[in-house]
């Protein structure tokens, strides 16, 4: 997994910190060849900046510059800050190089380190010195591998969540399509009956026949609107649609009663009589309340919920609220996807969130003349 994004604060910040520590150590120790040490340290830290984009080449350059320090400047035992550069190199090779390809670069750098001990260090050394430095690089390498693994797991989890959300949207679209199918079937049946009535009245009462034909036209316009929504939803789907009668606001008391039996204390505020709504709006309002109560039953803190359905001449408004912070918080959010899909299809507006008082509220507005 090689990083390809733009440079971040971390990309510059870590090399800057290492460079600062290196310069401070050179200033305090003042070893022989300090100038060369400063130049090589700055160059190696600069090479580490694009390490996410080119992890192999940048780490090889940075590590080589660091290990060339004993050849042109201070001896191996004069400075400790170069170990920080090598630690960043080890982490980078583990984090940003897929597989174990980074070990090849790290092995080449260990060969250079061994050459430093053999050809530049006048002390009596043996192979244990190389193993000692190598042991200092093992923890950052292991940390890099662990971080890589966690990043891969996070990416896979996000991918799975994305698939689940997409499936939830598809399922809700199919459910909306079934509801709209029932609405259209009812509208067409009503048109057939009204047309037959108009045909009978043409010979006896022209005024009533005209009124019946007006009803046919109004029902047809509504059916056309619902057909447009249906075609938008199903697109190329070949799934069969259900034929169960579509519920509406009139069935909300029965719905609330079922939730009360399941243990949810629902306070429903619905004026009587309910308004005459376009069938698509009516069934969608019912489904929105149903989903809101389902979420309250599953994730509410106190098994209580409030639902208010109000309307004016243009807009139907549904407000649902329940206390959160209990068993499972706000849940997965898939229910909200379904509500949002219905509101979007009808050209409405949806707001939801947790208030300062710890209540989760859903506020949906649907145009009563939605087309």
Automatic annotation (TrEMBL):
<dbReference type="InterPro" id="IPR036890">
    <property type="entry name" value="HATPase_C_sf"/>
</dbReference>
<feature type="transmembrane region" description="Helical">
    <location>
        <begin position="33"/>
        <end position="50"/>
    </location>
</feature>
<keyword id="KW-0812">Transmembrane</keyword>
<keyword id="KW-0597">Phosphoprotein</keyword>
<keyword id="KW-0547">Nucleotide-binding</keyword>
<keyword id="KW-0067">ATP-binding</keyword>
<keyword id="KW-0902">Two-component regulatory system</keyword>
<dbReference type="Pfam" id="PF23539">
    <property type="entry name" value="DUF7134"/>
</dbReference>
<dbReference type="InterPro" id="IPR055558">
    <property type="entry name" value="DUF7134"/>
</dbReference>
<protein>
    <recommendedName>
        <fullName>histidine kinase</fullName>
        <ecNumber>2.7.13.3</ecNumber>
    </recommendedName>
</protein>
<keyword id="KW-1133">Transmembrane helix</keyword>
<dbReference type="Pfam" id="PF07730">
    <property type="entry name" value="HisKA_3"/>
</dbReference>
<dbReference type="InterPro" id="IPR050482">
    <property type="entry name" value="Sensor_HK_TwoCompSys"/>
</dbReference>
<keyword id="KW-0808">Transferase</keyword>
<dbReference type="InterPro" id="IPR011712">
    <property type="entry name" value="Sig_transdc_His_kin_sub3_dim/P"/>
</dbReference>
<keyword id="KW-0472">Membrane</keyword>
<feature type="domain" description="Signal transduction histidine kinase subgroup 3 dimerisation and phosphoacceptor">
    <location>
        <begin position="172"/>
        <end position="237"/>
    </location>
</feature>
<keyword id="KW-0418">Kinase</keyword>
<feature type="transmembrane region" description="Helical">
    <location>
        <begin position="101"/>
        <end position="119"/>
    </location>
</feature>
<feature type="domain" description="DUF7134">
    <location>
        <begin position="8"/>
        <end position="146"/>
    </location>
</feature>
<dbReference type="GO" id="GO:0016301">
    <property type="term" value="F:kinase activity"/>
</dbReference>
